[in-house]
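Interim report to the steering committee. The following record documents the input for TIGR03557 family F420-dependent LLM class oxidoreductase (319 residues).
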Amino acid sequence: MTTLGYKLMAEEHDPRALVRNLVAAEAAGFEFSAISDHFSPWVEEQGHASFAWSVLGAMAQATSRIGLMTAVTCPIMRYHPAIIAQAAATLAILSEDRFVLGLGAGERLNEHVVGQGWPGFGERHDRLGEALEIIQGLLTGELSNYRGRYLQLDHARLFDRPQRKPPVILASGGPEASRLAAHKADGLIATEPKPELVEAYRKAGGQGPCYAEISVCFAPSQEEGLKTARHYSRWAVTGWKVMAELPSTEAFAAATEHVAPEMMAAQVPAGSDPKAFLQAVEKFQKAGFDHLILSQIGPDQAGFIEFFRTGLAPALKRG
């Protein structure tokens, strides 16, 4: 059975709008939500980058049913994993166990701001493994000291810790990350409908939920939707190998200068025909993902939420 979530793009909306959009999404029937956690937008046109954890606190108080999640937080540089564990524990309490902690290896764009450079892929993977051990250990109350190659913990303890540990979900773009999720996390999250990601996770012993994020653009027409997608989300065309390395909004603007609206069609279902959206959902379902996060690109969140309530949700339930 597929569980449907709503994406809160903190790069495209100010913090007050994010809270309002979540309240509307809860009323429309979304079962959970996921917020991005970035220091910078990808491109200048997006225009926002509020502190996700402050927004999550407001969201926990403004809603009563819908699940909350980070998609995803990087715990290897900009944040120390002990701080993320403390934040996750606090959110779990404030939301009465509605919080899921999504983690990933991050991007240069957001992590280099603290002046520690940006390590290569191998070191990032090792740092993430150490961070997972620290976060999981603090959330269970079983760890207070840690000496890794890159990360340390000195007599740490979470004094406000929920009775039920919040699930920790790990982002994967390849089999190695999927195996790490199976060994050190409680679930998986991805952005591409690749069955090999889920297969690697399951073969390595992973038994938790498999989340995926699907970018969409509801609009009066496909043409208008693709223009909106190009304006706000052309950065995604570069792919994760590039996205992880570019340092600034100016770099993303240069890398995507020649992206045309029609190039977005391969990645983003656009327009107002539910069939295109349902086909995208089906691809992820067939790949083995059971928690799907719909990410509406652009300012028309109210139109998309109503489209979900009256068109998409009934069709998905019938399917």
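The mean pLDDT is 97. The committee is asked to note this result when reviewing the revised timeline.
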